[in-house]
Specification:
This protein is an alpha+beta fold. The protein contains seven helices and six strands. Strands 1-3-4-5-6 form a five-stranded mixed barrel. Residues 208-213 have low confidence and may be disordered.
């Protein structure tokens, strides 16, 4: 497990709309753009092997602007395909807050970051004592049917609270701003409440974009 002393002051960042990484979760990525292949080469030379996943704003007039809060993932697996792409896996380490973007000569973006306020990300799995799992699973089943989605229900039923909530937060087809709200939730229970609200709102025929305005 990564410790606070392993967290650098500056991170390479990968802006990717709708891609959510959470602490103690895993995110598979395909890297093929030259700038991100260069980033991968540089990250492999560091002791922390951390990449910051962050979402760009999608609103008009905010091209290139990044959300303040992202999540750093440790590069834990990678392989090269025959056509020169890389398949990598990031393991969520801790959320961070962007202080400022760092100017430099790298083809990818780098940011000075602050880790304060995210101590629980470096701890053990969170619990959610007030989680009403039967009611949640019932709503989730209706949501999946409504969206035409399929899943391994046995695995979901056996997953602990954090794995269940975080995996669904990452995988469900919500709008990027909704994904950001799930990332910024201060605790597992708050994330579960946000996730439940998004599911119920979708079942009522609304969109996450409407709800977040």
């Amino acid at each position: 497990m990564i410790s606070s002393t392993d967290l650098p002051d500056t991170l390479p960042v990968f802006p990717l709309p709708g891609a959510l990484l959470l602490p103690r979760s895993r995110l598979p990525l395909h890297l093929f753009e030259p700038r991100y292949l260069a980033m991968l080469d540089d990250v492999l030379k560091t002791s922390s092997r951390l990449i910051g996943m962050v979402q760009p704003y999608d609103a008009p007039g905010q091209s290139g602007k990044l959300h303040t809060i992202g999540c750093a993932g440790k590069l834990t697996a990678f392989s090269e395909t025959e056509d020169g792409r890389y398949m990598v896996t990031l393991s969520g380490a801790s959320r961070f807050r962007i202080v400022e973007e760092v100017e430099g000569f790298t083809p990818y973006r780098r940011c000075k970051v602050n880790w304060d306020g995210f101590d629980r990300d470096l701890g053990t799995c969170e619990k959610d004592p007030e989680f009403d799992r039967p009611a949640f699973m019932s709503a989730l089943n209706r949501f999946f049917e409504d969206r035409g989605l399929s899943t391994d229900w046995d695995s979901l039923s056996e997953a602990d609270d954090e794995l269940l909530i975080n995996s669904l937060s990452m995988l469900c087809p919500f709008e990027p701003e909704d994904k950001q709200a799930l990332l910024e939730a201060p605790s597992l229970s708050t994330r579960r409440e946000t996730l439940t609200t998004l599911i119920e709102f979708s079942l009522r025929g609304g969109s996450g974009e409407e709800m977040m305005q």
